[in-house]
Amino acid sequence: EEGGRAARRPRVTVDSSKAKTSLEALKISLRQLRWREFPFGRRLPCDIYWHGVSFHDNDIFSGQVNKFPGMTEMVRKITLSRAVRTMQDLFPLEYNFYPRSWILPEEFPLFVAEVRMMKDSDPSWKPTFIVKPDGGCQGDGIYLIKDPSDIRLTGSIQSRPAVVQEYICKPLLVDKLKFDIRLYVLLKSLEPLEIYIAKDGLSRFCTEPYQEPTLKNLHQVFMHLTNYSLNIHSGNFIHSDSVNTGSKRTFSSILCRLSSRGADVKKLWSDIISLVIKTIIALTPELKVYYQSDIPAGKPGPTCFQILGFDILLMKNLKPMLLEVNANPSMRIEHEQELSPGVFENVPSPVDEEVKVAVIRDTLRLMDPHKKKRKDIQQHIESCKNNVNIRYNYFMCCRCQTLEQVSEASEELLDAGRADRLEYEASRSPEAGLPSLCLKQVFPKYAKQFNYLRLVDRVAALFIRFLGVKGTTKLGPTGFRTFIRNCKLSNSNFSMASVDILYIDITRRWNSMGIDHKESGMCLQAFVEAFFCLAQKKYKSLPLHEQVASLIDFCEYHLAALDEKRLVCGRG
Ligand code: ADP
């Protein structure tokens, strides 16, 4: 239907049958890209599956899906707090962008003790805390307290675990209002790690002028909580068609404002990029455990990518603080408006549409399966051109292994067997007319600055190696013993009996507070704790991150030697 050559190129196919509330924005994106949508699914496999909730919305065995297995679990308030805390233990300065947090109910005594200690050492410290139920969203069940004794430990909270967190009392205000930022981040790939950030996001405003928390105003949600879903019910909520006024604005409009006030906007962006990369580095180890469990290496399965919503609060001094990460950021491009008392209607929201359609469309452009094939072809042509021996035998060369992988898209082109035609097709952009990408790569672009933080990733690689049976997420006692033995960690000071005790102690404690009781055994976080314990024992006087790095090097060295030995024996 597009005529001529372009019509012969297969269009990218997208299954949108599970897109839920992101459907509207997805449809617009697909129209702009001229891709083929399958709103009711398709008998044949699609190139891309767009899920509204999770990886498991559909059973898929090929293509790409816009969710990672385990992401929803990973960004729950408790899991995220734990993952960030592990990183704070290793790198306290690098991870000071997340408020000090405690997990309830199990850390309640610790919370009480630590607050008392801090108050004793600094009597002028008058903190406020925010209690957030685990798994909650849209401000649901959140309340502020001045003292640990105000926690509602009775009733629902005990059955509903929560995180209690230091409340950031001095946020940056615009028009005297507190606001937060929703930034969209694309996790394009886990291995190798690839992260993109959208150049624009949304700012969500409170609807009551902000005052620092006092006993009198603690309960005023329109003053303290920036959730759109709460503030929309305030009489003061301002719907605006302009991106720089109203209760929901673009982040770029805020940056313009700040820049005109003389703020260092470049530094702010670089701090935000650093916060995003560090947060994802905290999440990747466990995500990899989920990934190998759902998509075991060597088995056919889809590859994954995911758009995440980062909620960030700017402090008065412009330091960005992470509030939370959303696995399913709202992609709705309309909002509810109360036309007359009790009568609601969905009306288009230009601000949402501008930001969200660009994020979805450009995510798809980055994931375009044909683009990858074209890139492969182009690379291949370059290498052919440089190779004198095959210059005159192009057709044969194109049947080589490298191009076999891209043969599907280029079959018709290969038949012609002419290099100039291939070159033409490979370089021809199907994206003419689209704006430049709104997503900016930050990793691996800045990998050099952050790779030293990826210690837990390497611990997770050890953990996964010893998981044994594919498809599990927990390590059994035999696996743990094999890990100790293969890495040569047991000696006269640390017998195998002590190894078993360490395993039992740590595993029992983690399982007693764990949310996931489906599998027995040691979860990754318990393994990380055991690993830190072993590192502290072996390298006593070093700072924790050096102890851990040294033990990882030690284990990796012994495992490489073992692999080498096995290889030699195998050959023999
Ligand atoms: P939910 O998932 O329910 O939206 P959040 O963690 O995003 O939970 O918190 C809801 C709102 O509470 C945030 O949008 C923010 O305005 C406010 N908030 C959360 N944590 C803090 C904090 N530590 N300091 C100040 N304000 C916070």
TrEMBL record:
GO MF entries: ATP binding; tubulin binding; tubulin-glutamic acid ligase activity
Pfam families referenced in this protein's UniProt entry, alphabetically: TTL
SUPFAM superfamilies: Glutathione synthetase ATP-binding domain-like
A cellular-component GO term for this protein: ciliary basal body
One of the protein's GO biological processes: microtubule cytoskeleton organization
Region forming the signal peptide: none
Keywords: ATP-binding, Ligase, Nucleotide-binding
Protein name: TTL11 polyglutamylase
Origin species: Glaucidium brasilianum
Lineage: Eukaryota, Metazoa, Chordata, Craniata, Vertebrata
